[in-house]
Amino acid sequence: TARIIDGKLIAEEIRQEIAEEIMRLKSQTNGKVLGLAVVLVGSYKDSETYVRSKKKACKEVGIISLEENLPVDSSEEEVLNIVRKFNDDPSVHGILVQLPLPKHMNEERVFAAISVEKDVDGFHPLNIGKLAMQGRTPPFVPCTPRGCIELLLRSNVEIKGKRVVVIGRSNIVGTPAAMLLQRNQATVTIVHSYTPNPTEITCEVDIVIAAVGVAHLVRGDWIKPGAVVIDVGINPIEDPSAKKGYRLVGDVCFKEGAMKASAITPIPAGVGPMTIAMLLRNTLDSAKRAYGLLD
Ligand code: NAD
């Protein structure tokens, strides 16, 4: 059966490295601070949980987190004003607008308002554009895709020259993951909801990255024996025996995947913790750039 890729452990290692780097940075800059600003609009339960864990992670490594909470009926202009305030604040190195935004807001306009130098989520059109262009290096790569690559690299899975399938083509996971894998010299196919016979494609490749949002979509027969499987999905399914009445599962049927793959990520403790670790890494990179310590 497959080796389990322990995302929690790898993320912990990375957070430790970041904490040490931040201590060094502070001593190099006579105690200058690092700041991450989080903008939360409305009170979505999941968003509040995500924001809480991001703030906790910041505190642990020595990043100051500022939070701005706006009511759900705020205007887009009010959100833009908050973003602009953080753009102008030199103690803020990263700005994160937590998704989803209320329906009456234009997500693209809000993301485009974030200063490219502080776009630690990597969703600014200029960052995504640079990610898509050969020979350009975007200052920030979206956290979940970056976390997937980092998991592969730190588990000694070679990406260069390999065939990879990314299932899903969202702006925040699938599409940037595919672009990032290409930059790492993989041959990438994107499988999405209009792909006929996806298994014909998926069971031919060395690495499968599932970012769909459909519980247990990927079964054992989707996977080539010995392939590596990264499961990004976080899907609640009913479970009367669980405390909350549900539990979280991935896009991959873990039991079947583990029988076929040579390595696989679990849910939880797979990609999830890596996303936060990469947010910290992006914030640190941003601060280093601001203090002239990174090209
Ligand atoms: P999304 O809904 O924006 O995109 C899903 C994509 O899957 C779409 O591109 C769609 O074309 C494709 N798709 C839908 N049904 C399909 C099918 N039957 N076959 C093939 N492709 C299909 O979702 P998202 O934001 O990319 O998130 C995907 C999953 O990853 C969700 O479960 C989400 O909760 C999870 N997620 C996890 C993290 C993390 O940190 N671990 C971060 C972001 C998202």
Automatic annotation (TrEMBL):
<keyword id="KW-0601">Photorespiration</keyword>
<dbReference type="Pfam" id="PF02882">
    <property type="entry name" value="THF_DHG_CYH_C"/>
</dbReference>
<keyword id="KW-0554">One-carbon metabolism</keyword>
<keyword id="KW-0511">Multifunctional enzyme</keyword>
<dbReference type="InterPro" id="IPR020631">
    <property type="entry name" value="THF_DH/CycHdrlase_NAD-bd_dom"/>
</dbReference>
<protein>
    <recommendedName>
        <fullName>Methenyltetrahydrofolate cyclohydrolase</fullName>
    </recommendedName>
</protein>
<dbReference type="Pfam" id="PF00763">
    <property type="entry name" value="THF_DHG_CYH"/>
</dbReference>
<comment type="subunit">
    <text>Homodimer.</text>
</comment>
<dbReference type="GO" id="GO:0009853">
    <property type="term" value="P:photorespiration"/>
</dbReference>
<comment type="pathway">
    <text>One-carbon metabolism; tetrahydrofolate interconversion.</text>
</comment>
<keyword id="KW-0378">Hydrolase</keyword>
<dbReference type="InterPro" id="IPR000672">
    <property type="entry name" value="THF_DH/CycHdrlase"/>
</dbReference>
<comment type="similarity">
    <text>Belongs to the tetrahydrofolate dehydrogenase/cyclohydrolase family.</text>
</comment>
<dbReference type="GO" id="GO:0004477">
    <property type="term" value="F:methenyltetrahydrofolate cyclohydrolase activity"/>
</dbReference>
<comment type="function">
    <text>Catalyzes the oxidation of 5,10-methylenetetrahydrofolate to 5,10-methenyltetrahydrofolate and then the hydrolysis of 5,10-methenyltetrahydrofolate to 10-formyltetrahydrofolate.</text>
</comment>
<dbReference type="InterPro" id="IPR020630">
    <property type="entry name" value="THF_DH/CycHdrlase_cat_dom"/>
</dbReference>
<feature type="domain" description="Tetrahydrofolate dehydrogenase/cyclohydrolase catalytic">
    <location>
        <begin position="5"/>
        <end position="121"/>
    </location>
</feature>
<dbReference type="GO" id="GO:0005829">
    <property type="term" value="C:cytosol"/>
</dbReference>
<feature type="domain" description="Tetrahydrofolate dehydrogenase/cyclohydrolase NAD(P)-binding">
    <location>
        <begin position="142"/>
        <end position="290"/>
    </location>
</feature>
<dbReference type="GO" id="GO:0004488">
    <property type="term" value="F:methylenetetrahydrofolate dehydrogenase (NADP+) activity"/>
</dbReference>
<dbReference type="GO" id="GO:0035999">
    <property type="term" value="P:tetrahydrofolate interconversion"/>
</dbReference>
<dbReference type="InterPro" id="IPR046346">
    <property type="entry name" value="Aminoacid_DH-like_N_sf"/>
</dbReference>
<keyword id="KW-0521">NADP</keyword>
<dbReference type="InterPro" id="IPR036291">
    <property type="entry name" value="NAD(P)-bd_dom_sf"/>
</dbReference>
<keyword id="KW-0560">Oxidoreductase</keyword>
